[in-house]
Design the sequence.
């Protein structure tokens, strides 16, 4: 059975999600939607066979819809997740989950109480090289993890001043909501819970474009340490290196993994097939609804990741470390 899904938010990323499964997936299909500016997406929705509704409530009242995708501004996530759960709809929500630990707990508890699946859209969890890195670390191939270094950055988009992504209340600490939370989720999935964050977020100017450079040190509950940076003023980078007491392993892009163990004569290179990670995450959502497999991001990781994000913002604002 193909799951019938509604989507709230049909901006750039909402359309990426729709496109990832349109006429490609046999598991789910987006058949209805709502968005803030209907006139901008009317032609798109006609082309994709999406019945464009007026409000999110219109989607929730539709008994023919099994689930909803939430790709709206971050501050709307909590209320929309809870409303969807109360309506008995399974929920796929784009990152960041919510903007505070308290709201994340409320949202997840609403889904748990309603017995619906709640899936968080961290697409990089589905990269084959990231899966390999997690397994390599878990299996002790580089020994005990001691330290991790990470950077996720890209060129910034020139959003207008009235765009919601230009609002520091919606997007605090520079590129943390747009990019950084992908990396904190990756770090949690590989290194375990984060115990302390000490973050700095400084505004820099580049060719008349002002944006923040955000960087931090991390202490994990395991005793391991880490450093992490994110910015919107450079070429795209996805870099994560885990150093263990017997060697190190790293990813630098979406398809490769490099490792070196003590005593090895040269680095070991592994290359992986290109993967549509948006299709992969949405089909994992469908599998969880069907009871075939749990969604890979647990409640604990979703809530803890939100708490880490909140701690980064608070530490950057106060200039002091924050314990979780």
Sequence:
């Amino acid at each position: 059975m193909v799951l019938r899904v509604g989507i709230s938010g049909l901006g750039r990323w909402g359309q990426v999600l729709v496109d990832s499964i349109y006429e490609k997936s046999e598991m789910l299909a987006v058949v209805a939607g709502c968005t803030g500016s209907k006139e901008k997406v009317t032609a798109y929705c006609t082309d994709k066979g999406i019945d464009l509704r007026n409000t999110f409530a219109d989607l929730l009242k539709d008994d023919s819809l099994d689930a909803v995708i939430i790709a709206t501004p971050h501050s709307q996530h909590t209320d929309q997740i809870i409303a969807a759960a109360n309506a008995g709809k399974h929920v796929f929500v784009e990152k960041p989950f919510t903007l505070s630990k308290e709201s994340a707990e409320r949202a997840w508890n609403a889904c748990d109480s309603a017995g619906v699946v709640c899936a968080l859209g961290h697409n990089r969890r589905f990269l084959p090289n990231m899966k390999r890195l997690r397994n390599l670390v878990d299996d002790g191939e580089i020994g005990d993890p001691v330290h991790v270094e990470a950077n996720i950055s890209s060129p910034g988009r020139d959003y207008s001043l009235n765009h919601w992504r230009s609002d520091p209340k919606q997007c605090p600490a520079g590129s943390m909501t747009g990019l950084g939370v992908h990396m904190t989720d990756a770090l949690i999935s590989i290194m375990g819970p984060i115990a302390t964050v000490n973050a700095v977020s400084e505004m820099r100017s580049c060719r008349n474009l002002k944006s923040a450079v955000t960087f931090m040190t991390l202490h994990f509950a395991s005793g391991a340490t880490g450093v992490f940076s994110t910015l919107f003023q450079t070429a795209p980078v996805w870099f994560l290196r885990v150093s263990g007491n017997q060697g190190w392993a790293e990813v630098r892009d979406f398809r490769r993994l490099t490792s070196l163990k003590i005593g090895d004569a040269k680095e070991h290179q592994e290359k992986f097939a290109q993967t549509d990670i948006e299709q992969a995450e949405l089909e994992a959502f469908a599998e969880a609804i069907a009871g075939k497999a749990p969604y890979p991001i647990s409640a604990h990781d979703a809530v803890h990741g939100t708490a880490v994000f909140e701690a980064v913002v608070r530490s950057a604002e106060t200039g002091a470390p924050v314990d979780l």
User: Anything to note?
Assistant: The mean pLDDT is 95. The domain at 3-122 is CATH 3.40.50.720 (Rossmann fold).
